Amino acid sequence: MLKRNEQYDVVVIGGGNAALCAAMTAARTGARVLILESAPKAYRGGNSRHTRNFRCMHGGPLGPLVESYSEEEYFADLMKVTGGKTDEHLARLAIRSSEECLPWMIEHGVRFQPSLSGTLSLARTNAFFLGGGKSLVNAYYRTAARLGVEVQYEAEVTHLELDGNRVAHIDYRKDGQARRVTPSSVVVASGGFQADTDWLARAWGPAAKNFLIRGTPYNRGLVLADLLEQGVEQVGDPTQCHAVAIDGRAPKFDGGIVTRLDCVPFSIVVNKDAERFYDEGEDVWPKRYAIWGRLVAAQPDQVGYVIIDAKSLNLFMPSVFPPIAANTLEELADKMGLPPAKLRATVEGFNAACGDTSAFHPTELDGVTTQGLTPPKTNWARPISEPPFYGYSLRTGVTFTYLGLKVDEKAQCSIHDTKINNLWAAGETMAGSILGQGYLAGFGMTIGTVFGRIAGKEAAAHAYAT
Amino acid sequence: MHMQPELLQEARRQAEICNACRYCEGYCSVFPALHAERAFADGDLTQLANLCHNCRGCYYACQYTAPHEFALNLPAALAEVRQDSWQAHAWPRGFARLFDRAGLAMMVLLVLGFAGLFALSQMLRPESGHGFYAYMSHGVMVAIFVPAFFLPLCALAVSLRAFWRTVGGGAVTLSALVQALQSAGQMRNLKGGHGDGCNFEAEDRFSHARRHCHQAVLVGFLLCFAATGSATLMHYLFGLEAPYGPLSLPKLLGVPGGILLCCGAAGMVWLKLRADRTLGAVAYWGGEMAFVLLLFLVAASGLVLWAATGTSAVAVLLPLHLGAVLSFFLLTPYSKMAHGFYRMAALLRDALRKDPGMR
Ligand SMILES: Cc1cc2nc3c(=O)[nH]c(=O)nc-3n(C[C@H](O)[C@H](O)[C@H](O)COP(=O)(O)OP(=O)(O)OC[C@H]3O[C@@H](n4cnc5c(N)ncnc54)[C@H](O)[C@@H]3O)c2cc1C
Ligand code: SF4
Ligand code: SF4
To answer: Cβ of B32 and A117 within 8 Å?
Structure first.
């Protein structure tokens, strides 16, 4: 085994978008490439299999994208969501490179479609994958195979042996056996650590045990922890993660996009004591769903309950689980495990604070607000009065973590201020090098594609040089 | 119209997940129609099922297929409802069971048809007559095939009327009809939205193989049909009797038609053998296969018969070919052949949905 393995020029750890971009790029230069993917084939592709679009700069109409989206506008959008906590150099590199990524993606098998119904606001900035992220991943695996990339599934990397400033070998487990491979170059693209809820709990406290993980159960941060322990330079801290409020009935892992709930702006949200805790109408939902992840995380048992009435039921995108329905608030409270009298009191208090609702407009900030209520509801404040009443539970759904490997513009990792000769990182596992906090829809795939390609190219070049 | 509630419920469960996801919107006309609804009545699901042509793009693209607990398999769920809808709308009711035993029904009909026609041609052998008519008079053929052609079409018409009510179709507009014919003619949906074709015979690899085979079958079938039609016209209008020479219209249409139909059907068999059966209506796989084989037999026996003109083999080949054609006609409303009619109706229904004049 060992002998044969020694022939690999590049080993890529991970099997998602960043890994595949790196592998294909390296293989196109003629390098012998091996992908080690911890998931079985059916679950290959990490969080990338759950994605739907990538954010792309463009000077004019490009593929499915309309009008234009300049570097400056893209960068400004990014600064808004990160509150300035952005590495400008790397961010601009990612943005500028995104434009050439789109045709490259098509060339490697990805197909795009017009922006999905319900997402018109993204038609200019985000290119949607036909069939979603899994079809992108499938296309890349096919192309990679054609380019001669080898793939091992259910191959979990456990350790990278560092020898000074180079990786000496990689240890991994496959079919219950410990294996070792000694390539010239290594690309780490194994995502964040969000699926390791113990690690999350160490950072967040025990509350994190109640979080749901929106994506793959395989991103457990094994390689990340192993490298950080050996002193590889890190970026970000373990409490930083992208978390949103999702349907509380979602599966623990891999619930993906369908568990999102868009009804909060038309609702009141209470905690398990049937008390409201935040302005549900502060802004349109795409700008608020991330902060609600944290708000819910701060409530007892990390759970919230959304209450709407009949007139709001059709105002938002359908979600995967039907709401809990009841003809009275008491019955609803009963079904949802809330104190009935308290829920009625909260709803009545809210209803009494609602004023003139004639300006109600579901898709705009309409200024229909409550009077003299704490916390207030500053838009879309209509009484919850028309039976049947509907309820959803809300939980915190973690998308990804930010703690990661620090890289430079070549995607190269460092240790004690010196470059590691043969180690590059791409995708979620180094996204913290660019974003300190916050998130911009579609930027995850941009980072993975741009830095995956850079890492693949550098890794192959290094392999030839040695 | 009674359809199986558990099949509808499973399709509904999956449609609701798709409606929350929408990633497959661009693949085919099923998804835009699906996303236009919020709740799915039985008629809606029946319509979606008949819009789906089982290209499987949405299966291989789906992040929720088993082992995921959502266990999405939309092509199979829709195939089950589709099959059930043909059965539920079949008329006369008693014949609906033929779907369950399509393979057997075809075999039995084929044998009976062959034997009957063979006996007939021996017993009623005309005194005079050229070519095929030396074995069976024109009058006898007409007496058998005209009803065998029209009765099934009448049965189908009754079924389609009921189907149209189920899917809530209203008055038909010309523009919708044109649209529906266009998408059927180009098999637009089989291109998979991106024009790379569908996923059928090699997992998530896209290919045009199925579209091309289907197109060959359809065009081949229409050419053969036109050949028969032109022969009928020549017979009655111009008094020109079969057999026709190689450069006559029936032959110019029929020979390439037969070859296309043979090739298309053979290709379909090959594709069906390679494709994953669990992404279709598993219990009907055999019946569909039998149908494709019957198509092949119709075309192949026709070609062989033509080649054998003037030899004594015609005595056997003619009843064989006619028997195959007879089985094919008679089973049209109760076999895979029905799909073409239901699918056209569904495309028309969908065109009406999109027709701004109808909203
Ligand atoms: C529901 C959801 C929707 C999203 N939608 C979008 C979107 O529309 N647009 C967007 O830009 N971003 C989106 N994101 C974020 C996006 O998924 C990520 O930014 C992106 O997929 C990261 O790609 P990656 O290749 O770095 O990681 P992943 O795709 O997560 O790949 C990591 C890979 O590493 C493997 N792995 C992990 N540990 C090991 C190990 N020890 N050994 C071997 N292999 C290992 C995993 O199995 C996996 O294959 C979404 C995320 C979620 C959860
Ligand atoms: S088949 Fe799967 S990926 Fe496609 S729309 Fe449905 S749930 Fe989404
Ligand atoms: S199998 Fe093909 S035609 Fe049927 S719903 Fe899926 S993508 Fe559409």
So the answer is: yes
A113 chain-B contacts, CB cut-off 8 A: 25-26, 193-194
Helices (H) and strands (E) in chain A, counts: 11, 20
Q: Where are the domains of chain B?
A: 5-86, 92-358
Q: Are A31 and A460 in contact (CB under 8 A)?
A: yes
Question: Do both A127 and A250 map to the same domain?
Answer: no
Q: How far apart are CA A350 and CA A346, in angstroms?
A: 6
Tell me whether A316 touches chain B (CB under 8 Å). no
Cβ within 8 Å, pair A258-B27: no
Whether the CA torsion A96, A97, A101, A103 is positive or negative: it is positive
- What count of Cα atoms within 13 Å lies in the side-chain half-sphere of residue B200? 25
Cross-chain CB nearest to A113 (options B26, B70, B204): B26
**Residues 6+ positions from A400 with CB-CB distance below 8 Å:** A47, A191, A192, A194, A215, A219, A241, A242, A428, A431, A444
CB–CB contact A318 B20 (8 Å): yes
Claim to verify: residue A287 and residue A363 sit in the same structural domain? yes
Nearest CA in chain B to A110: B194
Ligand 3 atom nearest to CA at B279: 1
Q: List the structure tokens of A285.
A: 């939902």
Partner residues linked to A324 by β-bridges:
A391
The answer to the question of residue A55 being in a domain is: yes
Residue A27: give the domain boundaries.
3-197+402-465
Domain boundary among A397, A422, A443: A397
Contacts of B193 in chain A (CB under 8 A): 111, 113, 130
Closest CA to B81 of B166, B177, B188, B183: B166
Binary contact (A113, B204; C-beta < 8 A): no
pLDDT one digit per residue (tens) for chain B, 359 residues: 689 999 999 999 999 999 999 999 999 999 999 999 999 999 999 999 999 999 999 999 999 999 999 999 999 999 999 999 999 999 999 899 898 888 888 888 998 988 898 888 888 877 777 777 888 888 888 899 999 999 999 999 999 999 999 999 889 999 999 999 988 877 777 677 788 888 998 999 999 999 999 999 999 999 999 998 898 888 888 888 777 888 899 999 999 999 999 999 999 999 999 999 999 999 999 999 999 999 999 999 999 998 998 888 988 998 999 999 999 999 999 999 999 999 999 999 999 998 766 54
The DSSP line for A361-380 is: -TTS-----BSS-SS---SS
Residue A368 resides in a domain: yes
Closest residue by CA, ligand 2 atom 3: B62
| Model pTM score | 0.95
| Closest-approach residue (CA) in chain A for B21 | A258
Residue B19 CA: which ligand is closest?
Answer: 2
How many domains does chain A divide into? Answer: 2
Could you tell me if A51 and A104 lie in one domain?
yes
The CATH number of the domain where A292 resides is what?
A: 3.90.700.10
CATH of the domain at A56: 3.50.50.60
